[in-house]
Design the sequence.
């Protein structure tokens, strides 16, 4: 693992939640170490935002334990949990200036209710010094985020990207133990999204909190996170590094969710001799399991050549540095990612083999089955 | 090309003609039933018009008389006191009810219906019910007070308590209406803002109210305050049923004075002058509302 | 939060609401209770809600004998129905024209609407009364209905609503050969039901409960609306007969309250949407 000394950041154990009889979380467990960046990736409605709300304490779970910084916070109010959160809509207070927005987490904690009063509060003992400290802290956080010249504005006068940075500043200003981000980039345009990705990762490094980042965009998850947790239908299917998630998915659902274009799925069977066969033809794969299985091959792992399955080209999509070739193979279709060189024409018949070291085999229950290159006979 | 332009101007002309035909009934009745009578009422205020007599232009004479008329001064003052009691209390109660109902999911529809009931009830009939409730000897309110050893006042027939009693009925009438407006305002506040306030450290409902709810309700509150003031300046039904301005003019209010001057004593000119005072107050309130709304309480 | 709150923790809130609700409902409760009691029991001033001897039949039949209840209710229906009919007839085409058509003078018409919104109906009352008196039209349905046939608020409401209708819908109707009048009633109105019901509820509640104008133009019982009927009974006949008075009040209040209880959500939303603008 990348984190030999895993300091406790945030963890959830056995979280269950159902709303109105519909199960949202089914026994979910997840741990993020201090300084680690974990992306929670899944399609909309899979329960990822609910899990984040359970961690923040905005939503009470039916069962399960939440810990932040090693301390159990399960029943505590969000304010007592040492978490900060960036909401999808940013949730900036429209009546406060940028500076006041960023200062809210500090004023709520450092000033008493009486000291927070608009005019009178300023006269109370200690209030002036505390307010000056808050102003200094706000300036310190606004400067690196490029918000210094916007401090007097109201959120309504800011662009989407600026609002987003204000929300980030408000979240990190009190250096939380856990830092939660709920699809923070989904309201930005495509160009801004890419630059903001890097900014968020930099802020995470600087703060050093346990960061949980909810997204439905796999390129965000794969590029930003130390580890990715793939969630579907209220379950976390796999938690691993981006490379592992892509190369070694443990579940068919993970394999088909990650990767674009989608991974190719072929019906296959393993005979008594342990050889994986597709439509009766033997492949180079061998396994200890038996019976019907699914063979999954990424579009870039096909090998065009003299061996393998016959497939007829249906159409090709030229994309500059590469091309996608859609072929009919038996009853189904497959997609192949080819280099920019000479492209096959529609109607052409090819033979497709695959790299056995990269092919994945899944059992009827969707779990991964170990398979390896068939050893030459009488080795 | 002349043909196209003429064709275009022809369709434009036919659209305009159609539009005029569609607005004609409304425009005619507006002119006849609102514009002319309103202008006439304003003009009348400067005459000594009495029904059946020829009006004579007397300039500001009516207004000079108003200033010296103790009955009118009393009526004006009473209206201000009435509005000063009903507006803040019914707005406050309406807000409290809306917050209480929205604080949980249970009983939402039921309680909303209960508090809204006075809005759809026949005011005259409910005023009569209040009269029974507040009756000095047989009324349940004073009977209840007697049980705990207090002799209740003659609520509606004593000049000390009559305005307060009318104001209480006014609060009862208006609170449910204000509650519904506040509930609409509350649902317009994004839920994420209140959640953000939780995460930001606003632990008590009280501090969340001051951080998020109250500032974001600003436009709604201002609107509710002005509309309640305008509604309560129009107080008429309860006075007409319960007190007729009495005892001894203690519950005389603007519209009721205007009514008695105009339709009982038939001094239409004098009554029109009171109407004009009423109109000026209403317009001033609306002007203040739009000015403040534009300036302060709106967030871009 | 709040969704899964336990009943126990919710109890203080519910108790407070129930207490306030009882205060709001107390006039209704005592009105109904008194309308069931014999007069001597009312004068004994005890706090029992349930009468010792039920006198409901006597009280209510006394009301029906002394008060032309049916007449009042019928008048109320005729007046409210007539007002609503003309308000819709005038306001819908005007609202459509202001929202969707270009014509010289449109700004003036809209300006007049905005100005009209500022003026309370009590202001033109005096000249209107003088006018109806001069025409000998006092004490008629016409006098009750005509002054309210124009609703600038209705025009404003329908204009706002029609503005959100897609222009293509109207272009399509024109291509299908409809004239502007046909478009108003056959295309625009069927798409404006939410606004029309909200406005109808607003208008009926306002005019069913109105006392000011009927009091000015109507004398006697023949054209009296429910509000006026209750006032007459209250000042002239009931005297201290609270039992009959409360029975009469219950009868006159019932129709609108029953309608409200049946279509509660529509009423609240109707009043809230119309209330938010005027």
Sequence:
């Amino acid at each position: 693992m990348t984190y030999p000394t895993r300091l406790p950041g945030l963890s959830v154990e056995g979280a269950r939640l159902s709303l109105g009889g519909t199960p949202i979380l089914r026994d979910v467990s997840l741990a993020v170490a201090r300084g680690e960046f974990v992306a929670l990736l899944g399609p909309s409605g899979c329960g990822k935002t609910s899990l984040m709300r359970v961690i923040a304490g905005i939503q009470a779970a039916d069962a399960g334990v939440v810990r932040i910084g090693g301390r159990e916070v399960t029943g505590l109010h969000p304010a007592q949990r040492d978490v900060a959160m960036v909401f999808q809509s940013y949730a900036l207070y429209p009546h406060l200036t940028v500076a006041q927005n960023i200062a809210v987490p500090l004023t709520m904690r450092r000033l008493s209710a009486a000291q927070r009063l608009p005019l009178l509060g300023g006269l109370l003992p200690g209030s002036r010094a505390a307010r000056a400290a808050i102003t200094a802290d706000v300036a310190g956080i606004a400067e690196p985020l490029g918000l210094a010249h916007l401090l007097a504005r109201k959120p309504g006068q800011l662009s989407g990207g600026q609002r987003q940075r204000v929300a980030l500043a408000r979240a990190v200003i009190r250096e939380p133990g856990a830092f939660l981000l709920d699809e923070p980039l989904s309201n930005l345009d495509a160009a801004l999204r890419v630059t903001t990705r890097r900014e968020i990762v930099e802020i995470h490094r600087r703060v050093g909190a346990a960061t949980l980042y909810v997204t439905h965009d796999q390129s965000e998850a794969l590029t930003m996170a130390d580890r990715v947790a793939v969630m579907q239908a209220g379950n976390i299917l796999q938690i691993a590094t981006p490379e592992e998630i892509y190369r070694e998915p443990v579940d068919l659902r993970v394999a088909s969710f990650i990767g674009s274009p989608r991974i190719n799925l072929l019906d296959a069977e393993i005979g008594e001799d342990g050889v994986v066969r597709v439509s009766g033809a033997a492949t180079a794969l061998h396994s200890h399991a038996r019976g019907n299985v699914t063979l999954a091959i990424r579009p870039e792992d096909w090998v065009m050549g003299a061996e393998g399955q016959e497939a007829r080209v249906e159409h090709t999509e030229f994309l500059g540095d590469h091309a996608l070739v859609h072929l009919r193979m038996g009853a189904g279709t497959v997609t192949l990612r080819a280099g920019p060189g000479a492209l096959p024409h529609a109607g052409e018949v090819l033979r497709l083999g695959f790299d056995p070291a990269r092919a994945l085999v899944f059992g009827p229950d969707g779990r991964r089955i170990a398979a390896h290159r068939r050893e030459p006979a009488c080795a | 090309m002349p043909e196209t332009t003429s064709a275009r101007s022809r369709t434009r002309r036919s659209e305009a003609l159609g539009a005029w035909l569609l607005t004609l009934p409304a425009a005619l009745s507006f002119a006849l039933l609102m514009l002319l009578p309103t202008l006439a009422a304003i003009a009348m205020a400067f005459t000594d018009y009495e029904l059946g007599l020829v009006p004579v232009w007397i300039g500001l004479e009516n207004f000079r008389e108003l200033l010296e008329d103790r009955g009118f001064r009393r009526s004006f003052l009473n209206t201000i006191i009435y509005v000063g009691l009903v507006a803040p209390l019914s707005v406050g109660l309406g807000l409290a009810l809306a917050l209480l109902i929205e604080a949980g999911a249970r009983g939402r529809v039921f309680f909303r219906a209960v508090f809204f009931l006075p809005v759809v009830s026949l005011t005259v009939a409910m005023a009569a019910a209040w009269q029974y409730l507040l009756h000095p000897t047989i009324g349940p309110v004073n009977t209840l007070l007697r049980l705990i050893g207090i002799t209740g006042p003659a609520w509606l027939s004593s000049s000390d308590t009559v305005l307060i009693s009318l104001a209480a009925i006014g609060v009862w009438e208006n609170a449910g209406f204000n509650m519904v407006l506040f509930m609409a305002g509350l649902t317009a506040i994004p839920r994420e803002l209140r959640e953000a306030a939780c995460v930001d450290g606003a632990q008590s409902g009280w501090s969340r109210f001051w951080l998020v709810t109250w500032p974001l309700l600003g436009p709604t509150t201002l609107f509710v305050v002005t509309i309640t003031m305008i509604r309560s300046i129009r107080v008429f039904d309860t006075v007409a049923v319960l007190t007729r301005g009495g005892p001894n003019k203690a519950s005389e209010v603007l519209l009721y004075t205007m009514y008695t001057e105009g339709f009982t004593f038939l001094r239409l000119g004098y009554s029109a002058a009171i109407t004009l005072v009423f109109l000026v107050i209403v317009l001033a309130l609306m002007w203040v509302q739009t000015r403040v709304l534009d300036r302060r309480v709106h967030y871009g | 939060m709040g969704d899964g709150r336990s009943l126990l923790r919710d109890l203080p809130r519910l108790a407070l609401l129930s207490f306030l609700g009882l205060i709001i409902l107390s006039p209704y409760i005592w009105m109904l209770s008194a309308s069931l009691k014999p007069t001597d029991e009312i004068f004994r001033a005890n706090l029992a809600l349930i009468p010792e001897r039920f006198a409901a039949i006597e009280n209510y039949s006394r009301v029906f004998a002394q008060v032309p209840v049916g007449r009042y209710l019928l008048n109320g229906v005729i007046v409210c129905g007539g007002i609503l009919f003309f308000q819709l007839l005038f306001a819908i085409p005007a609202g459509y024209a202001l929202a969707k058509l270009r014509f010289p003078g449109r700004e003036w018409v809209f300006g007049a609407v905005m100005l009209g919104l500022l003026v309370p109906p009590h202001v033109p009352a005096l000249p209107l009364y003088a006018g109806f008196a001069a025409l000998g039209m006092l004490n008629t349905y016409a006098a009750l209905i005509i002054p309210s046939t124009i609703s600038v608020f209705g025009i404003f409401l329908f204009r706002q609503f029609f503005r959100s209708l897609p222009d293509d819908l109207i272009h399509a109707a024109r291509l299908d050969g409809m004239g502007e009048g046909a478009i108003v009633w056959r295309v625009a109105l069927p798409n404006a039901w939410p606004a029309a019901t909200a406005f109808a509820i607003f208008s009926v509640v306002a005019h069913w409960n109105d006392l000011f104008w009927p009091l000015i133009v109507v004398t006697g019982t023949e054209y009296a609306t429910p509000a006026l009927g209750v006032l007459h009974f209250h000042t002239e006949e009931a005297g201290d007969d609270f039992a009959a008075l409360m029975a009469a009040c219950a009868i006159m209040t019932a129709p609108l309250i029953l309608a409200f209880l049946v279509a509660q959500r529509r009423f609240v939303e109707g009043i809230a949407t119309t209330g938010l603008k005027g």
Summary: DSSP finds 15 helices and no strands in chain C.
